[in-house]
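hey team, just a heads up i'm posting the complex here instead of the shared drive bc the drive is being weird again. everything in one block, sequence lines first with there labels, then the predicted structure for the whole assembly after. its four chains so it's a bit long, scroll down
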Amino acid sequence: MFIGSLGGVNGSEVLIFVMALVIGLITLVVRLGRKGLGGAAVEDLDVRTAPPKGTVTQRAIDQIKAMIADGLLGPGQRLPTERDLAVQLGVSRSSMREAVRALTFMGVLEARHGSGVYVTQLAAGDLLESFGVVADLSRGPQMVELLELRKVLESTAAALAAARIDADQLAEVERHLRAMDTTDDTEEILAHDVAFHRAINEAAGNDTMAAVLEGLSSRTFHTRVWRGYQEEGAIERTRREHARIHRALVARDPEAARVAAAVHVGEVEQWLRERLAEGA
Amino acid sequence: MFIGSLGGVNGSEVLIFVMALVIGLITLVVRLGRKGLGGAAVEDLDVRTAPPKGTVTQRAIDQIKAMIADGLLGPGQRLPTERDLAVQLGVSRSSMREAVRALTFMGVLEARHGSGVYVTQLAAGDLLESFGVVADLSRGPQMVELLELRKVLESTAAALAAARIDADQLAEVERHLRAMDTTDDTEEILAHDVAFHRAINEAAGNDTMAAVLEGLSSRTFHTRVWRGYQEEGAIERTRREHARIHRALVARDPEAARVAAAVHVGEVEQWLRERLAEGA
DNA sequence: CTCCGCCGAGTGATCCGATGAACATTCAGA
DNA sequence: TCTGAATGTTCATCGGATCACTCGGCGGAG
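-- predicted structure starts here --
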């Protein structure tokens, strides 16, 4: 096409110019039309859209959220296609996609390629899946705060689990406990350590709390903290502390479980606190 | 410009053509080079890119996250422009934008119009700002779980605050306490109620915990739950419970504060639990 | 009649180019 | 020296095109 236009004067340039002009006019008309509508007709929607608070995408996100919160969209339900939804909300598909992507990332929506966009079950696990980034990206004093937070929740979960755990769940806990005792591979120990706590947290019966703890115990966070911790011969101590938690669960003793879990996480917290004091 | 090119043959078209050609070639070379490198040289990067796990955007998100986690990008630092970053990660600008938007929404990045994209300070508040969605979208049994979680954290925060609160912070708490006692406007009471707890949570000295509680106490959640709760003449009881928490803070009595806060949230939790049992 | 594979419509995923808007920098003039 | 207008850089938004995937219908084989 370029070569053609280089060769000599032809009609294509005129065509392009006219098209650009037309497109410009259309755009102008559309914009004026949109502004015009906002003036009077759609009052109830206007309160949301007229004050252009933030970006267009942000508005789209809020509107979709509102649709779900108001019950217009239930869990598992399918949304209109991106194209239709974009028209419906008055934004372009690109902005629409960004909104959907953001909500997808937060676990509110789920996009199935070739099928459509659906609302998730809105379970705690879905919504808190992205919670892990906090743990992944925190450093320094924030890591201590995270461990303090985890100490509180983990001890509470252990206490609840001591009261509520059933035989199957206890067997699962014991399985990971034994697996940790019978290997020296650091990676394997780490994996079973995480699984050990996860089993307890799930046995506590509060899925929301378990999901938060899941985010707090993200793999990368564990790895970063414990790399140094376990080098100091803390593996044996960790094993003893796990065994103590387990005994409390078997004994159905909530307070013992609470204390044991608090001590377990508190040890790591204290170690990290001291290490930061030195490093600084 | 169009009119100019219509008038006669000039050099600009040649320039444009050459530029387009060059850009095309560069793109081609980059793509071939990437594919070629993936074969052997860059093994460690290859495990991330070669198996196209998930979507392109997801990969972009993970890569940016990795850059921050690895320290290549520090808090407050400016990222390359969208165009450069898109080329660098091998995705289009649209996908790039989606990734940036997702991270912006999570509070990891911040896009300043006309200036660039920056990494936030990565404070707990930034990262947990989107946490409120969980509270906004949960319903039924999940709301009880959220209140249970809040009971644990709020009581812990109250205990910590009793030990650490200073005069200014205590004055702030008292200000909201008095404001609640001297009005009957529901909206105003609600606002000061939230502020009352926020002041205590901030005085606890754990910003991460305060940020999580902030998300758990989102305005819409409060409104939904307390609309019914306060209709049952619970306002007076709420005032008494707040006063008790305040007395514990003044007395620097952590355990009293813990119990008072636990009772305060627990009352709402129990009420909601019963209400759900009836409704179901 | 039932089952299986092919195929086209529908839909999300990705890319591209263009234009507008907000901010930052530079430079001329008072 | 200070101010403000011109200029450049960058994000924000848009609409179109193309690719990849899924699902349901149709026709042929058994």
